[in-house]
C-alpha cells in the first residue's frame, strides 16, 4: 500500500517542485503562565453530522486533558464560509483549523500531489480507507503541507462517494454521459466526472438542494450520510453506488499558530486527534448503513 501511494504521489505531481522534507521545529514560543490558548475550528457540515459529533469529541477531550489551557471554538455549517474559503483563512491565519479533502487542500496551497489521497477508485471500502488514514495521511501529509504553512492534525473518513439523482439511475459508464452532476470546486472531482462523460457543475454545497429541486443539476455525488444530513433524498429518486472516490478529510492547522503552542499541548492535540480519528471511522460504518436505510 505504501509503495503504491508513494508511486501515485509522484505520478500526480503536476509541474510541482520536489517534495520538501523539513517539518519545522516543535513547540515554538511558550504560552505565558495561566494564558489560555484559543483555537478556532471551521467546517461545512451540519450540527447533526457525524463530523461535527467527533469534532466536539476532539474539543472536549483536548480541553479536559489540557485542564482548560487549550480551548477550541467550533464553527459548523459553513458559518465562516465554504470549504475553500475556510482553508484560505487558515493559510492567512484568520482561522486556526479547517477541514477538507486532500484535493481541496491541494487547490488551497497549490500542492497538486495532495490529491493522491482522493484519487478515483483508490479504495473500495472503509477498512482500506482507514489503513491509508492510519499509516499514510499524517506522515506523508506533513512533509507535503508544512512547507506551505499548514500542518495536518488528524483525518476523518468522508466514506465512499456515490451518486444520487433526480433523473435516472447509473448502472453503466454510458449512464454517466450528459448527466449534470454537482461536484465540489476541486479540479480532481471535476476531471473525474468529465472523464466519466458527465457535465460536472461546481454548485456551492449550500445551494445543492435547491439546484436539484429546480433542475439546475440532475444530482450530486457525495457520501450517504451527507445526503441524508442535507435531506437530498427529498428531491431525488435514485441512489447509485458508483464508489468513484474514497473521501479522506484532513483537519489542518496554521503552522505559525501551531508553533505558538507549547510542546506538551501539541502532544495532547495529536494524541487526541489520533484517538478520535479511529472512533470516527468505526462510527462512520454504522452511520452509512443507517443513512441508506433512511433513503430507502
* Strand arrangement, major sheet: 3-8-4-7-5-6
Helix content: 40-55%
- Based on DSSP secondary structure assignment, what is the total number of beta strands? 8
Unreliable stretches covering 5 or more consecutive residues: 7-26
Mean pLDDT: 88
Q: How widely separated are the two ends?
A: 35 Å
Report the radius of gyration as a whole number of Å: 19 Å
- Largest beta-sheet details: 6 strands, mixed
- Could you say which overall geometry the principal axes of the C-alpha atoms support? globular
Order of secondary-structure elements:
HEHEHEHHEEHEHEHEHH
Q: Structural class of the helices, strands and pairings?
A: alpha/beta
Strand content: 15-25%
Number of helices: 10
Describe the structure.
With 296 residues, this protein is of the alpha/beta class. It is 42% helix and 20% strand. The protein has helices at 2-12, 50-65, 83-92, 102-109, 126-145, 187-195, 208-213, 224-229, 255-259, 263-295; strands at 37-42, 70-75, 97-101, 150-165, 180-182, 199-201, 219-222, 238-254. Helix 6 links the parallel strand 5 (180-182) and strand 6. Helix 2 (50-65) packs antiparallel against helix 10 and helix 3 packs across helix 4 (102-109). The longest helix is centred in the last third of the chain and has 33 residues, at 263-295.
